[in-house]
Design brief:
Number of strands: 43
Number of domains: 4
CATH topology of the largest domain: Lipocalin
Number of helices: 9
Radius of gyration: 26 Å
CATH class of the largest domain: Mainly Beta
Shape: globular
C-alpha cells in the first residue's frame, strides 16, 4: 500500500503502518476513494479501517462527504451494518474504523458460485428489507445499494459503505451536473432529480440487487453507463430468471414513480410466511477465501483462521416484536440501578414445557480459583419453538415464567427445578415474575391477572388484574396497577386486598412507572395525544396520596432516579428514537435537558451514580455523564450484537446484557470495554434467534441468563474472561 504521510506527533506520523492509533495489518480491498485494511483494536476486536486516498484528502468537498459518511454510519444500528468503532475525518489522511464483518460480498458470491437459489433469494430479500427499514428509521438514505455493498454473513446480510449516503436532515446537497452512484443500481430520480432523492431510491436499488442475485445481471444491462441510465429512466426492467413467486414484488420495487414502490416494511409483510423458514444462503462449507479484488464499493471479505471450526448457518437477525404499553407505539424503558439485585420487570418471550422436568447440570465449568462459582445450565424446554425463558430473583430463589408455565422455581445454586405451575399455552408472551412480600412471588399472563404464589410449593394465592401486565408495579408492601378505566389502584402485596383506587386530578389515563424505595413513591405519567406535553407526578404506594406533579414539554418517559436524586426521563423523537435525557428536580420542577450525541433506539438504561449507560437495540453502548452542565459522553462501545436485552448492573463496575443468540456479554463500565461473553446457545445453529430477549439477573457474584434453546444458565460474575 502507499505510505501514509502525516505530520505532527501522533501515531499516524510515526510510520506508514498506522491510521490513527491502529496498526494496519492487511489490505482487504481498494477502490476509487480509498483502501480498506484489516486492523485490531486495543481489546483485540478485528476492524476494517478505510483510509482515503491522498489525492482526495486536500479536497474540502470530499472531506465534507467523508465526514457525512461517518455521521451516517454512526446513526444506523449495528444489526444490519458494519458498526463504526472509531474515525477521524480531520486527519491528514481521513480514516474510519468499523467492526470487521466476516463474509463475502454479494457480488463475489454471485461471481464465484452463480445466482442464488430461490430460498436464498427470499432470505436475502427479507434481510435487505429489514436493513433498509433500520437505515431509514435512522433518517439516512443510502443511495448506493449494490451487490458489492452487501456482505453475506451467517447472521444475515449487512449493508456497508455509506460514502454517498445522506441524512434526510443534512444540509449537504448534490451539486448540479454531478451524478453520484452506480448507474445499474440507481433509481430514475437519481438521474432526473438528484436533489430530491429519498428512501424510495434505496427500494429501487434493492429491486436491482435482487435481480442481480437471481440472474447474475441487473434488470438494466449494458456496457455503457449512459445507455443504462437511459434504460433506468425509460425502459421496463428485464426480470427474466427471477423466481415467479418474487417477480411481482421485485417489479413493484422497480416502479419508475417512487410513490408506487413498496416500503421496506411492506416488502417484509409481503414475504409472509416469515422468510426464516427458508434455507440459509451462507454455505456450510468454510474455507479461507482469497482477498477481494479491487472495487469502489468493496467491503471486508471472509478471512477465517485455519483452525476455525465449521459453523452451521444461522438465520438473519430479527427485530424485536411489538412493545407493550401505551396504545400508541413507543419504547417502554426501565432503569437498572446497581443496588437493585431483586427481580427485574423485563419482558419475556418463551415457551417452557407445561411439565418442566427436574433441573440438571448439563454444563459445569471447572473453577478457576478455589472460591469460584462453577456455574450450571438447566434446560427447561426440550422441544418446541425458539424460546428464551425470563427469570427473576427474590428471597434467595430464582423464578421463571413462560408460555405454558405460569411459574417455576429454580435452585440458584444447582439449577434444579424445585416446582412449577402450568399455564395455558397461548401465543402471547408472559411477563417475568415479580418479587412480593412475606414469601410470595407474582406472575402474570399478558391478558390475565397478576397471581401470587407461595415461594414454598407454589400454592396459588390472591390475584389482581390490570389492563396490561407491564402496568403492574411492585412497590414495597404494595403493588400499583393501572385499572384500564382512566385511574390507578394499589393492592396489598401480602393479601391482595385493595388499598386505594382513584383517578388522579389532571390526568386522563395515568400510567404507573418506576418505584423509588427510598421515598415510597411511584411515578405516574401521561403524554398528550400530540406528544408535545407530558404530565409527570408521584403517589405514595400505600396511600395513593399525590406527592408532587409537574407539566413538562415533550414526549417523555420516566426511567427512574439518578444517584443525586433527580428523576431521569427519556425524550422521544417523532421517529420513535430518543434524542435527549431530561433531569427533573421533583421538589421545584427544575428541568435540565441533555442532548444525546445522536438519536438512539434505546433498549434499556442503567444508572450508576450520575453516569447513565444507554444500550441501544443493536448493542451500541453509550456512557453519558449527567453531572456535566450540558452532559457529556464518557465513552461509546460498539459490541456488534443485534437485538439485545435491557442492561443489568453488577458489582465491580460491571454491566451485563443478553443477545438474541443466547450469549451473555459483560462490559467494564469504567473503561468502556467488553471483558467477556458466553457462547451462543442455538443448539449448534438448529434454532432461530429469540425474537425478544429477556434481561440477565445479577445476584451477588452470579449472573443468570437465558437462551433460545430454552435453557437457564448461571456464570461467575467475577471472572467474565473465562466464560
Amino acid at each position: 500500500m502507499p505510505p501514509l504521510r502525516g505530520t505532527g506527533a501522533d501515531r499516524e506520523a510515526e510510520g506508514p503502518e498506522f491510521a490513527g492509533g491502529y496498526r494496519l495489518q492487511a489490505c482487504l480491498g481498494a477502490g476509487g476513494m480509498g483502501v480498506v485494511h484489516l486492523a485490531a483494536s486495543a481489546s483485540g476486536l478485528r476492524l476494517a479501517v478505510k483510509v482515503v486516498h491522498a489525492r482526495y484528502a486536500e479536497d474540502p468537498e470530499f472531506r465534507a462527504r467523508f465526514r457525512q459518511e461517518v455521521a451516517a454510519a454512526r446513526r444506523v444500528s449495528g444489526a444490519f451494518t458494519a458498526p463504526v468503532v472509531d474515525a477521524d475525518p480531520d486527519a491528514v489522511r481521513p480514516w474510519m474504523a468499523t467492526l470487521y464483518v466476516p463474509g463475502p460480498t454479494l457480488a463475489d458470491q454471485v461471481k464465484r458460485n452463480g445466482p442464488l437459489a430461490p430460498a436464498e433469494l427470499r432470505r436475502l430479500t427479507a434481510g435487505l428489507a429489514e436493513a433498509l427499514r433500520d437505515i431509514h428509521r435512522a433518517g439516512v438514505v443510502h443511495r448506493d445499494l449494490k451487490p458489492s455493498n452487501v456482505l453475506l454473513t451467517d447472521t444475515g446480510p449487512k449493508v456497508i459503505d455509506f460514502g454517498i449516503s445522506r441524512p434526510v436532515d443534512s444540509d449537504l446537497r448534490t451539486e448540479t451536473g454531478k451524478l453520484i452512484g452506480s448507474p445499474p443500481f440507481m433509481a430514475p430520480e437519481q438521474f432526473q432529480r438528484p436533489r430530491e432523492v429519498g428512501p424510495a431510491a434505496d427500494v429501487f436499488a434493492l429491486g436491482s440487487v435482487l435481480v442481480h442475485a437471481a440472474t447474475g445481471h441487473g434488470p438494466f444491462d449494458s456496457d455503457s453507463p449512459y445507455i443504462v441510465a437511459y434504460q433506468v429512466v425509460h425502459d421496463e426492467p428485464d426480470l427474466t430468471g427471477v423466481p415467479v413467486e418474487l417477480a411481482p414484488l421485485v417489479a413493484r420495487c422497480l416502479a419508475k414513480d417512487p410513490a408506487e414502490r413498496p416500503t421496506p416494511g411492506q416488502i417484509m409483510a409481503a414475504l409472509q410466511p416469515p422468510s426464516y423458514a427458508a434455507e440459509a444462503f451462507i454455505p456450510a462449507q468454510r474455507r479461507r477465501p482469497a482477498l477481494p479484488e479491487g472495487d469502489a464499493g468493496v467491503g471486508p471479505s471472509a478471512a477465517w483462521d485455519a483452525d476455525t471450526p465449521e459453523r452451521a448457518p444461522a438465520p438473519p437477525a430479527r427485530r424485536r416484536g411489538p412493545r407493550l404499553g401505551r396504545p400508541r407505539l413507543r419504547p417502554r424503558l426501565t432503569i437498572a440501578v446497581a443496588a437493585a439485585l431483586a427481580l427485574t420487570g423485563a419482558g419475556l418471550y418463551a415457551a417452557l414445557s407445561p411439565t418442566a422436568p427436574a433441573g440438571r447440570e448439563t454444563r459445569t465449568r471447572p473453577a478457576e480459583v478455589a472460591t469460584a462459582f462453577a456455574g450450571w445450565q438447566t434446560t427447561l424446554q426440550e422441544h418446541g419453538p425458539t424460546a428464551a425463558p425470563a427469570c427473576g430473583h427474590g428471597g434467595g430463589a430464582l423464578y421463571c415464567s413462560a408460555r405454558g408455565v405460569g411459574l417455576a422455581r429454580v435452585d440458584p445454586v444447582t439449577g434444579r427445578v424445585l416446582w412449577s405451575r402450568t399455564a395455558p399455552v397461548k401465543a402471547e408472551s408472559p411477563t417475568a415474575p415479580v418479587a412480593l412480600t412475606d414469601g410470595l412471588v407474582g406472575a402474570a399472563a399478558p391478558t390475565g391477572p397478576l397471581r401470587a404464589y407461595a415461594a414454598t410449593g407454589g400454592t396459588p394465592g390472591w390475584s389482581a388484574e390490570a389492563d396490561l401486565p407491564e402496568l403492574y408495579v411492585p412497590a414495597g408492601s404494595a403493588v400499583v396497577l393501572s385499572d384500564g378505566q382512566g385511574g390507578i389502584r394499589a393492592v396489598d402485596s401480602r393479601t391482595g386486598k385493595e388499598l386505594w383506587r382513584h383517578a388522579l386530578a389532571g390526568f386522563g389515563v395515568p400510567r404507573p412507572g418506576p418505584y423509588d424505595a427510598a421515598t415510597g413513591l411511584v411515578t405516574v405519567s401521561e403524554t398528550s395525544p400530540h406528544g408535545n406535553r407530558t404530565r409527570v407526578g408521584a403517589v405514595h404506594a400505600r396511600t395513593g396520596e399525590v406527592a408532587w406533579q409537574h407539566d413538562l414539554e415533550g414526549d417523555l418517559d420516566p426511567l427512574g432516579r439518578t444517584g443525586d436524586g433527580m428523576l431521569l426521563l427519556s425524550s422521544l423523537h417523532q421517529a420513535g428514537l430518543i434524542d435527549a435525557l431530561v433531569l427533573l428536580e421533583p421538589a421545584d420542577g427544575t428541568v435540565r435537558r441533555l442532548s444525546l450525541p445522536h438519536r438512539i433506539d434505546v433498549r434499556g438504561v442503567a444508572v450508576r451514580g450520575t453516569a447513565v449507560h444507554i444500550l441501544d437495540a443493536n448493542g451500541h453502548l453509550t456512557a453519558f455523564d449527567t453531572a456535566a452542565p450540558k452532559g457529556r459522553v464518557l465513552w461509546e462501545l460498539e459490541t456488534g450484537a443485534g437485538n439485545v436485552s435491557e442492561p443489568a448492573l453488577g458489582p465491580g463496575d460491571r454491566l451485563y446484557f443478553s443477545v438474541q443468540d443466547g450469549r451473555l456479554l459483560a462490559v467494564d463500565t469504567v473503561r468502556g470495554a467488553l471483558i467477556g461473553q458466553t457462547r451462543p446457545r442455538l443448539l449448534n445453529g438448529r434454532l432461530e434467534y429469540a425474537p425478544r430477549v429477556p434481561a440477565p439477573l445479577v445476584v451477588g457474584d452470579r449472573v443468570f441468563g437465558t437462551a433460545p434453546d430454552g435453557s437457564v444458565f448461571a456464570v461467575d460474575a467475577r471472572d467474565p474472561a473465562s466464560w
